[in-house]
């Protein structure tokens, strides 16, 4: 049997007296695209933060390719987030004073890649995502959909094993959302990247290979997506 790319085993997490995760079990295979859905306060964002090593669960295990990550020190978890995990958030979180090219180059520069090489790799990803010619644009000069594609380029430029997409279309209109999802899925499937999408939008979840539903801190159901 193959080892899951990412796995949560009986993880629990509380904030004060509030139980966010209550013995939750979850796994995703290499190259699989999974949408995690659930109402506000269900625990889906806490699950993402635990899977990504941002939060340590109170108990249980989080494993990346069979290796526990919650016991790593903060320096090692930060390195994981920089080199093996990619992140796309609802509002992109681009640095407003930097150009599209510089925003995409940042993860490589932090990893000590030479600027010329970093910018070359960033240009390739911007072109792949339909943004050739936008390299010198500031985030304020981009549409919402363009800015989100810059964020995807930034997340993918390090060739991460796992991409976490937290409400990646939440701030976009339906046409821009469709464009972003098509381009993101084309990119990750060509790279064999595992993807976990946190969303409340059924249209976004439909792009996944399967959906899981989180309610009251537990997985309460699963269904196959269309995997567009």
Task: Give structural notes.
The two termini are 27 Å apart. The strands form 2 sheets. This protein has a 6-stranded mixed β-sheet. 34% of the residues lie in helices and 27% in strands. The radius of gyration is 17 Å and the shape is globular. The chain is built from 7 helices and 10 strands. The mean pLDDT is 91. The chain is α/β, with parallel strands linked by helices and 228 residues long.
Q: What's the average pLDDT?
A: 91
Q: Measured on Cα atoms, how large is the radius of gyration?
A: 17 Å
**What form results from the Cα inertia axes?**
globular
Helix content: 25-40%
Low-confidence stretches: none
**What order do the SSEs take from the amino end to the carboxyl end, as H and E?**
EEEHEEHEHHHEHEHEE
Q: Please summarize the sheet with the most strands.
A: 6 strands, mixed
The structural class is alpha/beta
Q: How many distinct beta strands?
A: 10
Note the beta-strand portion.
Answer: 25-35%
Oligomer: single chain
Q: Give the strand order, joined by hyphens, for the main sheet.
A: 6-7-8-3-9-10
Number of H/I helices: 7
Spatial separation of the terminal alpha carbons: 27 Å
């Amino acid at each position: 049997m193959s080892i899951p790319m990412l796995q949560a085993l009986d993880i629990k997490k509380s904030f004060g007296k509030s139980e966010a995760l209550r013995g939750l079990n979850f796994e995703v295979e290499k190259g699989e695209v999974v949408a995690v859905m659930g109402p506000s306060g269900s625990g889906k964002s806490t699950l993402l933060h635990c899977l990504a090593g941002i939060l340590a669960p109170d108990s249980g295990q989080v494993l990346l390719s069979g290796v526990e990550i919650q016991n790593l020190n903060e320096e090692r978890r930060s390195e994981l987030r920089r080199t093996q995990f990619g992140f796309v958030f609802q509002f992109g979180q681009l640095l407003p004073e930097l150009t599209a090219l510089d925003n995409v180059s940042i993860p490589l520069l932090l990893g000590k890649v030479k600027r010329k090489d970093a910018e070359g790799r960033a240009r390739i990803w911007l072109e792949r995502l339909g943004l050739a010619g936008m390299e010198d644009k500031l985030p304020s000069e981009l549409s919402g959909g363009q800015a989100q594609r810059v964020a995807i380029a930034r997340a993918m430029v390090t060739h991460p094993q796992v991409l976490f997409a937290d409400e990646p279309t939440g701030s976009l209109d339906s046409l821009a959302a469709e464009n972003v999802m098509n381009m993101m899925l084309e990119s990750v499937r060509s790279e064999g990247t595992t993807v976990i999408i946190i969303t409340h939008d059924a249209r976004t979840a439909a792009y996944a290979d399967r959906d899981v539903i989180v309610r009251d801190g537990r997985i309460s159901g699963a269904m196959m997506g269309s995997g567009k």
